[in-house]
């Protein structure tokens, strides 16, 4: 290396320990790293004073004072192993302590370096900030514990007390209503039972008397036939005719509905609604995942989705003639479900939100499939029960008789509940749980889900 002196200045701010000074090269921005190299020595200015630095020169007095005042070192100062100079600078690039020679001519030449005291001040300030933030957070936590949580505990107790009171009040009201309904229904059943018993007693007495009279008349006629001489018999024709007329006056016994318990005596909208709600809110409200439409029954007026769950009405121009199948409806836009129901409680849900004209319900498997007569039209025969939506109106249809339904809001879904033990079919709205219509009927054979659509599509939901 040349013996010529290449002059550079290490400028340290007079308040480097407070403002975070950096090494500066003459004519360069203060953010630039040290770049000048000395040959044989370094001229350093610290606080406006110059000092010479050799290969083993000591650190500047200002830096030493700053380090001492800042309390960085106690006892002997650490020295650079390579230059045996005090480690009074910090290399931010390599995150280590260095001496001034390392920054100027050593391994950290060109790196971003700062005086150790400045670095210490920065770190201390950061720690102070962190501690202050931690203290503020601790105060917030204490305030949260002492105020917010305490208030929440008090409010929780009050809210829980009100909730318990609400539950007890509602259950008490429901229990009272159920007890009253139970008493009313039991009394109604008892009155109906007494009525039927009285009818049976009356019928028994009447027909017992008729039987006795008939038996007595028959016995007399038999006696006349077997014990009356011929001459007397032919002269007793008038008497015999009177007795025959008396016997013929006894009518034929016949069974009537008056001799049966009226099933309506135990019917209750309240109990039916509670029972339906309990079932519909359970895990099986949407029925079996295996319930789909039977492709064999699909009308040529409809198309079936790949998952066999969606029926779509086809306009004439896109219809195709499917192969003949005895199970297929050939005129009405009908399709039947794949699962037969003859026991237990069965439920399923149909999405009807896209359709303005549809029918959903049940039918016997024996329902007629061919022709355009009412025998194959859902709801217009004795083998099908459906809820119908057409022209904005909702109705229950069975055997050609329509029962208009009052619907508060247009349902997007229609749920069906078939309880076989009670022989009850119920239509409801799943979103609100409102019962749209229910019917109790003696079903004489297994039932199949039945649907029809003449506007867009409907879908079985799972």
Automatic annotation (TrEMBL):
Q: Which InterPro entries match?
A: B30.2/SPRY, B30.2/SPRY_sf, Butyrophylin_SPRY, ConA-like_dom_sf, PRY, SPRY_dom, TRIM/RBCC
Gene3D superfamilies named in the record: 2.60.120.920, Classic Zinc Finger
Q: What is this protein called?
A: B-box and SPRY domain containing
Q: Name one Pfam family in it.
A: PRY
Coiled-coil region list: 164-195
PANTHER family referenced in this protein's UniProt entry, alphabetically: E3 UBIQUITIN-PROTEIN LIGASE TRIM (PTHR24103)
| Alphabetic keyword roster | Coiled coil
Q: Where is the B30.2/SPRY domain?
A: 270-462
